Amino acid sequence: MALAGLWETWRSPAGERVRSFAIITTTPNELCAELHNRMPVVLSPDVWPEWLGEEPADAPRFKALLAPYPSEGMMCWPVSARVGNVRNNDASLIEPVVLA
Fold first, then answer.
1. Ordered alpha helix ranges (H), 14-100
2. What is the reported pTM?
3. Under a CB-based contact definition with an 8 Å cutoff, are residues 80 and 89 in contact?
4. pLDDT tens digits, residue range 40-74?
5. How far is it, in rounded angstroms, from Cα 22 to Cα 3?
């Protein structure tokens, strides 16, 4: 899975080199709409060369890539509430849980 994003390396007013990155979001597909009012733009492998500048693409083509990923290509399951805490960072966060 690849998410559409933009990155930049720039100099701060203090002269420090800063690397910044942003994930681009879009309106949610049917599956993600149940969870949130936006979702990351997911890029399918066939468009990676365009997004990365390895193949030509113009502004209308890039805009077309910013569409919601089809729900049929995704799965969803309940996970632990531990996901909501940035201090938690382990593989168990993606394990399915049974809701009461």
1. 30-33, 48-51, 59-65
2. 0.80
3. no
4. 999 999 999 999 999 999 999 999 999 999 999 99
5. 10
In this structure, how many other beta carbons lie within 10 angstroms of the beta carbon of residue 100? 3
For residue 32, the Cα-to-chain-centroid distance in whole angstroms is 12
Q: Are 50 and 65 in contact (CB under 8 A)?
A: yes
Q: What is the pLDDT of residue 100?
A: 72
Measured distance CA(10)–CA(2) in Å, rounded: 24
Give the pLDDT band of residue 1 (cuts 50, 70, 90): confident
In the chain, what is the greatest distance between 2 CA atoms, to the nearest angstrom? 53
Do residues 25 and 66 lie in contact, with contact meaning Cβ atoms separated by under 8 Å? no
- Our measurement of the distance from residue 82's CA atom to the centroid of its chain's CA atoms, rounded to an integer in Å, reads 20
Angle at 75 between CA 72 and CA 79, to 5 degrees: 160
Cα Rg, the chain, nearest whole Å: 17
